[in-house]
Design a protein that fits this description.
This protein is mainly alpha-helical. It has 2 helices and no strands. Helix 1 packs across helix 2. The protein is globular.
């Protein structure tokens, strides 16, 4: 039963990252919150499976130039 309880976590995202996540969530028929939870779950699953980080460049700034500036 404890696994069904969810913690609330405040999260600050850049507008570009939020817009990218929102578009991806819409493509996957999820809410933005659901998409973030899904992606974090997949990262944790991969970490447990491989015993390492998903990316070896965790501290590298994201380049989100693929988004239209509006």
């Amino acid at each position: 039963m404890a696994e069904q309880q969810k913690k609330q976590v405040p999260l600050r995202l850049s507008a570009k990252l939020y817009n990218a996540l929102a578009a991806w969530a819409e493509d996957d028929f999820r809410s933005v919150n659901g998409q973030i939870e899904y992606l974090l779950t997949e990262c944790v699953r991969q970490r447990k499976k491989n015993g390492g980080y998903v990316s070896t460049e965790l501290d590298k700034p994201l380049e989100l130039d693929f988004l239209d500036e509006k």
